[in-house]
Amino acid sequence: MSKKLSWGALSTAAIGVKKVLPAMQKGQYTTIDAIASRELAKAQQIAGELGIARAYGSYEELLADPNIDAIYNPLPNQLHVPWTIKAAEAGKHVLCEKPVSLTVAEAETLLAVRKRTGVRIGEAFMIRTHPQWIRVAELIKSGAIGTLRSVMGCFSYHNIDPSNIRNQIECGGGALYDIGCYMIQASRLAFAGEPERVVASVERDPVMQIDRLTSAILEFRMGQAIFMCSTQLIARQSVEFLGTRGRIEIEIPFNAPRDRPTRIFVDSTGDLTGSGIRTEEFPVCDQYTLQGDEFSRAVMEGREVPVPLEQAIRNMRVIEAIFKSGETGAWEKVEA
Predict the structure, then answer these.
(1) pLDDT in tens, 175-191
(2) Options 3.40.120.10, 3.30.300.20, 3.40.50.11740, 3.40.50.720; which CATH number does 5-124 get?
(3) Domain with CATH 3.30.360.10 in the chain
(4) Which end of the chain has the least Cβ crowding within 10 Å, N or C?
(5) What are phi and psi of 235, to 5 degrees?
(6) Class of residue 182 by CB neighbours under 10 A (exposed 0-12, middle 13-18, buried 19+)
(7) Which tens digits make up the pLDDT trace of 187-221?
(8) What pLDDT was estimated at residue 2?
């Protein structure tokens, strides 16, 4: 298979310009052929810097380009669904940044759009295509750590700039939407299922109103996941999977480095000196390159994309339940 999927980027958002697009340009099955901004000069500037052939001064112009097969949508969270719909109706496949929406109901509207247009729509959880995460899922499924009973993790950074979109509640800012979603994704992947109920504590910034510190317990049929996420703590990320006979830890779970190998630690004894820990190392790779290639191959081969809408909606159901529990202070069911 030598053909490449032709991609256009909807906006000059930082995550796209700094991480995703340069990585996708290195892909075996992807080319970035156009980029759009609401300011033509900005689109032209980024196109020049990244070597992208075409620049557009409106999103509509990009969607009208007949030579573009797929759209990467890194717009602010509240614009994910509206512009994913417009892209799909223009006949473009869509890889949308997480979270795909701000509510379950909003995400579910995309199901009808996908059915009507026949395009593929996926959520950009790049960890799902990284070899370290694929390996962890394999180890858990194989029983390498016995029966998985607990997932524990945290994800945090420090950002108190009110002008930053992550701190603007009307744009879907806050810790849970931005980074807590990864812990939900990780827990659902590990347990290979959905939590039945959740309980959470949500602390909001008194001025910006975004959730700045959220802690949650997710109750699965086989065990529990416990995590904390924050936008106002020292930068930290960790995740561990504890079973009846072993434990797995991912050294750098979410922002996996692209310039050096990644590692997971598999503990088979629980000896606190570390004598029972073995290390598995994975070659240098860029998870954004892998994500783009896997999405492109899925489109070209007529199969499902790595994180389809159904998975995005299930993640959103957990997010919604956590927010509700933060308000009620009680356990909340996760809708099936």
Answers:
(1) 999 999 999 999 999 99
(2) 3.40.50.720
(3) 128-284+317-333
(4) C
(5) -65, 125
(6) buried
(7) 999 999 999 999 999 999 999 999 999 999 999 99
(8) 54
How many Å apart are CA 49 and CA 269, to the nearest integer? 51
In single-letter form, the type of residue at position 235 comes to: A
CA distance 20 to 54: 18
Query: Other CB atoms closer than 10 Å to residue 279's CB: what's the count?
Result: 9
Place of tokens 């827990």: 187
> Could you tell me where the DSSP H helices lie in the chain?
14-15, 21-24, 40-50, 59-63, 80-89, 104-117, 131-142, 175, 181-191, 287-301, 309-328
According to DSSP, the residues that pair with 214 across neighbouring strands are 202, 229
Range 288-317 average pLDDT: 97
CATH superfamily, with its number, for domain 128-284+317-333 = Dihydrodipicolinate Reductase; domain 2 (3.30.360.10)
